[in-house]
Amino acid sequence: MPETLFKVDLTKPMHEQEVPGHNRWHPDIPAVVSVNPGDVFRIECKDWTDGQIQDNDDPSDIRDVDLTVVHVLSGPIHVNGAQPGDILVVDLLDIGALPDDEWGFTGIFARENGGGFLTDHFPEAAKACWDLQGIFASSRHIPGVRFAGITHPGLIGCAPSQDLLNTWNARERALVEKGGPPWKPAIPALAELPNPQNAVLGTLKGAEFDRVAAEAARTVPPREHGGNCDIKNLSKGSRIYFPVYVDGAKLSMGDIHFSQGDGEISFCGAIEMSGYIDLHVDIIKGGMEKYGMVNPIFKPGLVEPRYSEYLIFEGISVDEFTGEQYYLDAHVAYRRACLNAIEYLKKFGFTGEQAYLLLSCAPVEGRVSGIVDIPNACCTLALPTEIFDQDMFPT
Amino acid sequence: MPETLFKVDLTKPMHEQEVPGHNRWHPDIPAVVSVNPGDVFRIECKDWTDGQIQDNDDPSDIRDVDLTVVHVLSGPIHVNGAQPGDILVVDLLDIGALPDDEWGFTGIFARENGGGFLTDHFPEAAKACWDLQGIFASSRHIPGVRFAGITHPGLIGCAPSQDLLNTWNARERALVEKGGPPWKPAIPALAELPNPQNAVLGTLKGAEFDRVAAEAARTVPPREHGGNCDIKNLSKGSRIYFPVYVDGAKLSMGDIHFSQGDGEISFCGAIEMSGYIDLHVDIIKGGMEKYGMVNPIFKPGLVEPRYSEYLIFEGISVDEFTGEQYYLDAHVAYRRACLNAIEYLKKFGFTGEQAYLLLSCAPVEGRVSGIVDIPNACCTLALPTEIFDQDMFPT
Amino acid sequence: MPETLFKVDLTKPMHEQEVPGHNRWHPDIPAVVSVNPGDVFRIECKDWTDGQIQDNDDPSDIRDVDLTVVHVLSGPIHVNGAQPGDILVVDLLDIGALPDDEWGFTGIFARENGGGFLTDHFPEAAKACWDLQGIFASSRHIPGVRFAGITHPGLIGCAPSQDLLNTWNARERALVEKGGPPWKPAIPALAELPNPQNAVLGTLKGAEFDRVAAEAARTVPPREHGGNCDIKNLSKGSRIYFPVYVDGAKLSMGDIHFSQGDGEISFCGAIEMSGYIDLHVDIIKGGMEKYGMVNPIFKPGLVEPRYSEYLIFEGISVDEFTGEQYYLDAHVAYRRACLNAIEYLKKFGFTGEQAYLLLSCAPVEGRVSGIVDIPNACCTLALPTEIFDQDMFPT
Amino acid sequence: MPETLFKVDLTKPMHEQEVPGHNRWHPDIPAVVSVNPGDVFRIECKDWTDGQIQDNDDPSDIRDVDLTVVHVLSGPIHVNGAQPGDILVVDLLDIGALPDDEWGFTGIFARENGGGFLTDHFPEAAKACWDLQGIFASSRHIPGVRFAGITHPGLIGCAPSQDLLNTWNARERALVEKGGPPWKPAIPALAELPNPQNAVLGTLKGAEFDRVAAEAARTVPPREHGGNCDIKNLSKGSRIYFPVYVDGAKLSMGDIHFSQGDGEISFCGAIEMSGYIDLHVDIIKGGMEKYGMVNPIFKPGLVEPRYSEYLIFEGISVDEFTGEQYYLDAHVAYRRACLNAIEYLKKFGFTGEQAYLLLSCAPVEGRVSGIVDIPNACCTLALPTEIFDQDMFPT
């Protein structure tokens, strides 16, 4: 077993850990450890909510979750020799649950507190707890399904430079001031701007803490450095190429998902869990310019579960409430594909909430199938039918 | 070989065929043939432009293409016993090129005439011609790549009812009147409204032709009936479940693609070709209500080319020109993922146009990876690296 | 469509074709055509029995088949520049049935005339005819199954040199003289030695015909040149590297299989059909020594049908009649695995003959799983359960 | 983490464990623990040699291994309610290395002590040690390869009845008395008959120990109960259906392989390791007769590594030393395929021993491709080329 360079005590919140991690992005959050190119090591992670959710049948913890706390991350890890402009090569050698914490949860956030992709359809909080048995997950809250997850970190990336951070803050603030598209639900927010409340910034203290907390970016969106990409295929065996923006790269990670569907549609939509990640790191000097890199790129692993039978749902960019036609809007088209799948699943004995939770966390594939056939985008959602214990095809 | 129920003469335009097809959607276009549930038959199709593009090195035919002509379709086929509310089950038993017409083309339309996903980056017309050799395609215009296509009809669907047609026309007209999202390029159009110019409506003539041509929907977008979905996975061996809106279902198809990438991003983006489709049809009575069907659903075939090695590019919903932040905009995010891939390919000896054409037509996977992490959507583009004759990973 | 360099008239036997092929191996059978490295061309093939089997419900044609006629081959093709010691690189660009001959057959040969792997269990002739619809096969003789085939030439290879031919004849004669292993059924023969009866040797005539016919090898076994390997994965998109033994390589092929299971256990065990093959050829000069080549090697294609659910049967090298223990005998072990699968299929409504035919021709995988655990070899047979229209797992 | 029902202390031999397991098969070896149908639990296993092999560069431990000790097994586990004639359903929920023992070894046994498939070609002992990093294995003794293993128990099965045990002993003794096939190497043995030396029989003592030890079967071969099948696809997520021969089934397991090629050709041929297995058990009453079960059957898991590019070697049943022709001998044919692959690998910088070790333990596929084309069997070996860091195709 590789050496564990970041440990977590599941009985304590992140700010009380012996070596605390962080829940904001900022170049000045101190590294917790240094490694060399070629090193192999283990990092432990808490679940993204810092332990706010319980393995029970009461969704009030999902409803009342404090989102100023998220996402609690393990790191930053300083990689010796990494400099701005380099590429940090990260191999995800293994990912798994922590012994004696082998369960996970999927939630629908209430519209008033977090919301999600279909918040206008499912405004109330709901929760499914998952029992993890080896490679399989099953839930007493969604009977009749069992599947192998594509385990991955929902969130992984290097620290931004101060310049990049400033860009993020400026453009997100501008969005909040300008407003969103016509189909934007009234709540929740357009973006989460810097918020010192409940910020955890490693060992920073005092005035330095205050300075950083005031401008550190929230961890919610994916950005140029990677971050909360929620890409379900960043699984065991993947190799990720990260742009490096600061000395030492300052790699952090968390939000481990036992399984997630493309889009992670219910927002708390993966099978969220604590866990560990085994990593190998290396550096490609000057790689960003050499390869024209803006965002991370990656090579997926080769041990993803293999399904061969899918049922695929289509969606087009027409609003389901108003019938309004949107212009090549893949967000609306994917929403319609998801809603079509949910309606279908309801014919097979699932409630709408169960179906919504299931599409969020099962290994469903979401595709941008057609994006040029004006005015309709066509998105598709592919549901692996082998995860069900009944025949799912029309007859 | 199953009986051919719709033949095409490649030397003649669609309106001069012995039995002409159509290039608009309307319930009153007469069926060309009737079949029974359980029948197996072959349908021949012209390429979607009705033969306007030549196998040469001059892209002026792409630049000057007459888009009032598209898409020329084979059908409608009346399925005996199919009634509104039923599901039409269509098995795609085989799809292929026509003997002695085994080539295809991929085009970038000029911004002034058609445009495409990246029209502000690639405003000029371009063309790649493909040589089809069995399961493989290669192009003298994009040396260094060779791949097996996922052959499929870009366009297949049943006729709309008059009510559904009216809905389409109303909502698309409203969009044109209201305008598109901020990132909409100035040209081309937001939508193609009914246009009698060059309409082909089977055997309709005179006043009836004029009435139908005035209100028949253009074939460009996918809609509730399927239509121009451009779903690359509707390939050999697929089973499609179509909603039926009119007596006899009136199934039509065309726009055969030897291969296409998710999104078909350059618009004339697949390897476009003429070809044949072998079909088997059946009916599920009352299936639309039984399964809550709005759009078609399908089960993909099991002989798609199998790649195991991909390089995956990420994109987020930030405008590449202005840096403006969009709210969970998967269109912009996928555009950024495509642009990231193009920049990368340029480092390996491809021109931007070659890369754009390649992402349009090669079997690339486009995913809606994260759609809830406000304010950034995260889309990914997965490029199968085995199609290249060089090592495509960073080193 | 590539130029057809070898045509067949299905209404005539091979020796009456305008350009006859051959059904024996000998270096002096004249080439029918010459091609250059880099050429792409089509070869048509008759079924391996030269049209002896009919699409009907009467297996007497299988029972009475004249096996001195097999296998009728198309070729030889002279590849300009190929010399002994070179590697001939052959790409199988496409393979398919001939239009209007889209059916196939699978047979159990009678023990007295041909036999097969389980001839002591199934001594009577039987036949299943298959209806080919695009990528799928189904049979009125084995209801309840439908599958996509892995289409391939059962037989393909270059001509032997005189020396190699002499080696073949000597060692096979020695076997006939010495006898087989204890589990060898009393009939049929141990090997088929040269036999002039019904020999077809291209355009050879007179004394030259007689000389060659007397020593030409039968086509039944695979040998160093490839030949009747019956490797089901030599399918569309494969690249084969053949050793070259004579000037011009003299490539021949035939025995096209719409589908076959590993082992082709009933001997006439594939879905046998006539058909065409599109090929591309090239040469690696001096490749045999460079790569230490004895037998052909190949890279399989990437459009094989994709199944994910299998039921796997084990067999060990203990005789099913006598209980005798054999030493690491993979032949016996695979036989037991097949018999175990047949017994299982009989519990699901299939007759033994249907099960035997099905394992012969469906895409089952036969594995040498363990070959060192004295004294038992362990072979496994993997049956794709998605080809059945019923649930095939124990409950 | 499921409860661990069998623990191992890696510092002690099996007979000194607090609860010892066993290394022979006999119905009267007492169960170590009882479980109920539906239970989930963990079993720890020592490596098959009981810790005789060290992680170093000296193969003398392989050369001098004491094979009377193998295979040390964990169990038997009594499943409440299981009776002769039932099927025991075993789900392999997870399999992995023990923390802090994450390494493995592959050995070539000396001809004088164990031997292997190619013992006449490689008579000397050799060893490769593997470093396990998450899903990947690499070895300082075979540079240039790295692969993801298909981890599985080489040995798992239920106890035989006394009758079945007697049958085993009788037939194996008869083989030893009768002799093997002509290609059998002079040494090692034909079979391993009961041998009390170093027998470990759980808690049995005294006269009962002596009685059982005298007749207990060695664990080397796979037999009707499963046992040492060395089927590489019995991996994570598999469901195995075992015949039950004694009350409580008495399930045992061991010989965990991080990875193995089909055939496990060098005998000590997998990446051998200690480890754990998480299991779920259930019972199908009366299942053996219902499904005609003789040997176990199984459904493989869906997280096996996915390779798409293979190089496939053929072999036929002609002796490589004498040129003697064997009759449909799949053992000889697979041996020739392996030898062909080894010769090829030697052209790419590997020694023969390295190649032999690699084919033994890497995820290579061994197929019985043709078994009816008298007199030659055709076996194939498929080598996944993505495991190499160089291009492995002929050029």
What is the averaged pLDDT score of chain A? 97
Oligomer: homotetramer
Briefly note the structural class of the backbone of chain A.
Answer: alpha+beta
In the CATH scheme, the class of the largest domain in chain A would be Mainly Beta
The gross shape of chain A turns out to be globular
Could you name the CATH homologous superfamily of the largest domain in chain A? Acetamidase/Formamidase-like domains
Tally of separate helices of chain A? 6
Percent strand of chain A equals: 25-35%
Rg of chain A computed from alpha carbons, rounded to a whole number of angstroms? 20 Å
Largest contact between protein chains? A-B, 98 and 98 residues
Count of distinct structural domains of chain A: 2
CATH topology of the largest domain in chain A: Jelly Rolls
Question: How many beta-strand runs of chain A?
Answer: 20
Overall CATH architecture of the largest domain in chain A: Sandwich
- Helical amount of chain A: 10-25%
Distance between the termini of chain A: 50 Å
Low-confidence stretches of chain A: none
Write the element-wise H/E pattern of chain A from the N-terminal end onward: EEEHEEEEEEEHHEEEEEEHEEHHEE
What does this 3D model show about the protein?
4 copies of one chain form a homotetramer. The first copy, chain A, is an alpha+beta fold and 395 residues long. Chain A has 2 domains: 4-299, Sandwich (Jelly Rolls); 310-387, Endonuclease I-creI (Roll). In chain A, 16% of the residues lie in helices and 28% in strands. Chain A has 6 helices and 20 strands. Chain A has helices spanning 60-63, 162-178, 206-215, 287-290, 330-346, 352-361, and strands at 4-6, 33-35, 40-45, 73-79, 87-96, 103-108, 126-133, 136-138, 147-148, 152-158, 222-223, 226-227, 239-243, 251-257, 267-272, 275-284, 297-299, 310-316, 365-370, 378-384. In chain A, the strands form 4 sheets. Chain A has a 6-stranded mixed β-sheet, with no helix packed on it. Chain A has a 6-stranded mixed β-sheet with strand order 2-4-14-10-12-11, with no helix packed on it. In chain A, helix 5 (330-346) packs across helix 6. The radius of gyration of chain A is 20 Å and the shape is globular. The relative contact order of chain A is 0.20. The model of chain A has no long low-confidence stretch (mean pLDDT 97). Chains in contact: A-B, A-C, A-D, B-C, B-D, C-D. Strand 17 (297-299) of chain A pairs antiparallel with strand 18 of chain B.
